[in-house]
Amino acid sequence: xxxxxxLEYLAEKTGVKLERRAVDRHTADTDxxxxxxxxxxxxxxxxxxxxxxxxxxGREYLKSRAVTPAAIDNFFLGYAPDRWDSLFKxxxxxxxxxxxxxxxxLIVAASTHQHINSSTxxxxxxxxRVIFPLRDPRGxxxxxxxxxxxxxxxxxxxxNSPETSVYHKGRHLYGIFENxxxxxxxxxxxxxxxxxxAISSWQAGVKNILAxxxxxxxxxxxxxxxxxxxxxxxxxxxxxxGWEALERSLPILEDHQLNLRVITFxxxxxxxxxxxxxxxxxxxxLVDKAVGVYEAIVEQTLTRVxxxxxxxxxxxSERLAPVIARIxxxxxxxxxxxxxxxxxxxSPQSVKRQITVWKSGIPSxxxxxxxxxxxxxxxxxxxxxxxxxxxxxxxxxxxxxxQWLDPVGIRHILEIxxxxxxxxxxxxxxxxxxxxxxxxxxxxxxxxGPDAVSDRTWVETEIIDTLRDLERLWIKQEIRDxxxxxxxxxxxxxxxxxxxxxxx
Length: 504
Fold this sequence. Notes:
CATH topology of the largest domain: DNA primase DNAg catalytic core, N-terminal domain
Mean pLDDT: 83
Shape: globular
Number of helices: 22
Structural class: alpha/beta
Distance between the termini: 57 Å
Number of domains: 4
Strand order of the largest sheet: 8-7-9-10-11
CATH class of the largest domain: Alpha Beta
Number of strands: 11
Oligomer: single chain
């Protein structure tokens, strides 16, 4: 529990009344009502799944996924009927206002819709889905996830509650309430990606299981795990996105000093749900045989890229240099430098030089097969500028023209950047397709040392120089595109001369 949660828990046990300041009372009352609404909704969904004939479709689906009645009860699974306003009517009859139900994220407001009561323009968010209640460590239902049953419907397979005052995706781990005692007993948490991964693992006997509900771990999720254990085994789907997410999470895991191991899958296995359902004994064995995170990343990279030719060895060293460079313990870092050198049949000094090249930010030339995909100078500078602004919390420069930047995603992030929000909260409002670009920019190592971004003078100088280079590149491109316009050409050339003089 957090400090505040501990106070509230003990006050309730001992009969002590906690007084909140008036400024907080309204928010606290609203949160309490949202939690009440979520609790009633979870009971409603669970009743329909387990007791009512309308839940037959949900029961058949879970049966097809080999989900047992014990798991349904443990995770309090439910079913949302394929109707527009059944939950809304149920909660309204219980006396809750439209405002509170809407703030809970359980209903959606619409300006017009032919299927909705025209007087309300509101409809249930979850319809025709199996429901997974999301409960915090105290057992309070803070949100929901819903899995679509009909593959013909053109909607997202999974939807989640939106961010609310009581639910923040980046702070939540599915199963934390249900399995926290098992995590304490095992002194280890096993992390998977989705709800069904966690449920199938629980049924297979690995009960110290949590689902990340995403790919890259956040600092808040790591802190939540640390309440129960410092030992974590991570099982990611066997695709490149899962491994990239793991590498993005490494700095956070290093900062919080977690002992991380990785569960590797046999060939042909797609995810933990697949393995745990088809061969529970094998899943337990794989969990027990989890290997150290750096061993897993090194072996996975060597296997995928190969290391027979000089070009392959070059690619492997470029991909692993950032990973090894972030290892904080010098003894452990030296071990992996020597290990990689031995596997590639090169000297440790060669690996160290590659790490130095990566730290300096100077890109080495790519393999011939990757030359076509090499980012241009404009893209490289744009990403560097975004990293500088995000990591230093520097305000957006007033003289920055977004058209200088490439790709469009960087322009969009800087366009809506809100200095008042933390990085985690700002990331939550970004479209999902921009998350990887944001993560890379927020985690990229900058400057000559780890504390470079705290040096305001250095940051401001870097931003000014980068903006000048971006404008210079943009003008040169405009000059190439505007050869038939003498007046504009003259203006562009004059501005380019000014920039060249300042730059020299």
